[in-house]
Amino acid sequence: MIELRQxxxxxxxxxxxxxxxxxxxxxxxxGEFLGILGPSGSGKSSLLYMMSxxxxxxxxxxxxxxxxxxxxxxxxxxxLRLVDFGIVFQYPYLIxxxxxxxxxxxxxxxxxxxxKAQELxxxxxxxxxxxxxxxxxxxxERQRVCVARALLGGRSIIFADEPTASLDHTNGLAVVxxxxxxxxxxxxxxxxxxxxxxxxxxxxxHITDGEVVKEEVDPSFAPTGPIRETIGP
Length: 233
Ligand SMILES: Nc1ncnc2c1ncn2[C@@H]1O[C@H](COP(=O)(O)OP(=O)(O)O)[C@@H](O)[C@H]1O
Ligand SMILES: [Mg+2]
Fold this sequence. Notes:
Elements: E1 2-13, E2 16-28, E3 33-37, H1 44-51, E4 59-64, E5 67-68, H2 74-84, E6 85-88, H3 100-106, H4 114-123, H5 139-151, E7 157-161, H6 169-182, E8 187-192, E9 203-208, E10 211-217
Helix pairs in contact: 3-4, 3-5, 5-6
The structure holds adenosine-5'-diphosphate and magnesium ion.
């Protein structure tokens, strides 16, 4: 459903080309939990930005449902991120003067209802705190609000960029577990440097210096969509 073909992301660093991602071929299959594992600086965030349309590849292509994201207009891309994709970042970005519930709703104008948002917060264990402002919540609770915001409306893909990095290990595992259990039919892509967060992934891609170096597949996972070659130039 998301397909990268020879996708590279190059930054200019003091006039020199720096390949954050190099010729990546990768397909995200419907419903799968895909883990992307790599050390700091290996290009994980860059890869996630390309997959989610936050950044355009310098060369190569990124397709969503066979349509090139780079050929979409900015409003179309924004709609993709609002309606089709859910994104969770390392730090829980919330609007300080809105309650937890309002922060969940703000991510899905016209898509999610108040009742559904409240239900999600309840499922995530913070239903009784939905009236609170972000500064009245702990770090783990704030990240749960971001998870609810990403889940509301039944997205086709949830992207999470080191969603557990600012949490202790127990809260980190809890946040991953919530994403896994509540994503419904959606695919889940989690980028992390911590392999313990990917214990239940259907597939784990290892990335080093912007390149895919290894892929581990859970043989019992049957994707609901077409399988394509995922590694190789
Ligand atoms: N905006 C930028 N400008 C220049 N270089 C960048 C920029 N963002 C990231 N990089 C570099 O690209 C490489 C990959 O970064 P990143 O994708 O953030 O890795 P990770 O998320 O795995 O830590 C690193 O060498 C980083 O320094
Ligand atoms: Mg990163």
